[in-house]
Design goal:
Radius of gyration: 50 Å
Number of helices: 4
Structural class: mainly alpha
Order of helices and strands: HHHH
């Protein structure tokens, strides 16, 4: 019976280990469930303690002074947004006006300039005589005409018309 007693003792040991492991598993499961339940309960308590006044405010049940102050803050925020928006619009408008003035001024300068035609025939003869006295011989200088026959003002208008700004 020695062998049979050894087998029974081994089976008893296996059953004891299984029961012990099952007890540990049940204990861990029970603790996790109770911990979760307690955590949910505590979160609910915290919400009631801390968020209760906020819920009353959201429902309109807050004290009048607090509601009035919140509305004043919201109104101030909206007015600041409008002020910033107006300032951005004014700066943009001013920048556009300055750029337009600069473009007009540049166009006026181009239109007002007359081509440099060079020296008059009398000035050319006097220059040639002066150069001749100094030993420099050169063909007489004649006034230069634009290659196209157009003045600078006319060329500027033509250039703007070609660009599509005419």
């Amino acid at each position: 019976m020695d062998f049979l007693e050894g087998v029974l003792a081994g089976l008893l040991l296996l059953v004891a280990v299984a029961v012990w492991f099952g007890a540990l598993t049940l204990r861990a499961l029970w603790r996790s469930l109770t911990w979760l339940t307690e955590a949910v309960t505590r979160i609910g308590e915290i919400e009631r303690e801390k968020l209760g006044p906020l819920h009353r405010m959201a429902d309109g049940g807050a004290p009048d002074a607090l509601v009035t102050r919140l509305q004043a803050v919201e109104t101030g925020l909206e007015s600041q947004k409008m002020l910033v928006s107006d300032a951005v619009e004014r700066v943009t408008s001013l920048g556009n006006r300055v750029a337009a003035r600069q473009r007009r001024a540049a166009a006026d300068v181009l239109e007002d300039e007359e081509p440099d035609t060079g020296p008059t025939p009398e000035q050319a003869r006097a220059l040639a005589a002066l150069l001749g006295k100094n030993g420099i011989t050169q063909a007489p200088i004649t006034p230069a005409n634009p290659a196209s026959g157009l003045s600078l003002k006319e060329r500027a208008k033509l250039h703007r018309a070609q660009r599509g700004n005419g």
